[in-house]
Specification:
By secondary structure, the protein is mostly helical. About 75% of the residues lie in helices and about 0% in strands.
């Protein structure tokens, strides 16, 4: 499988970061649109014997949200610079959480920093796994 063109990866990263900004910088807990839907699904699952705490779902969502970061930045920087990918994931999430401190209805937590950074690491690990099977994907 040939390597992805750099411009495609950059475009995907820009689109991804725009989506992350939209999710993390729009009104927070007082906005009940998507959170209300999540709580409805969780209530439905609990009624059927599968209780999942909202806090667990939120933590997992923070991990999942940063998996593409690890993949895309890993593709741009290469796997040999894994440490730079992880530092950029950490810096990005710290920036998000810092901005959230001054936004109304947003809550900044250390847990979000840890979970997002973990997601970046998982994305990078998935890229490394894939690259080990397809040597021409990432360096």
């Amino acid at each position: 499988m040939p390597a992805l063109p750099r411009r495609v990866v950059v475009a995907a990263l820009v689109a991804y970061l725009a989506a992350v900004a939209a999710v993390t910088m729009t009104p927070g807990r007082t906005y009940d649109g998507s959170l209300g839907a999540v709580r409805t699904v969780l209530a439905w699952l609990a009624e059927r014997g599968v209780p999942l705490p909202f806090e667990l779902v939120e933590a997992v969502a923070n991990v999942v949200m940063f998996v593409p970061f690890g993949v895309l930045v890993g593709l741009l920087l290469g796997l040999r610079r894994w440490w730079a990918v992880l530092l950029l994931a950490l810096a990005t999430t710290v920036t998000i959480e810092t901005v959230q401190r001054v936004l109304p209805d947003r809550f900044s937590t250390v847990q979000d920093v840890v979970m997002n950074t973990l997601g970046g690491a998982i994305g990078l690990a998935l890229l490394a796994w894939w690259a080990a099977r397809h040597r021409d994907i990432a360096g």
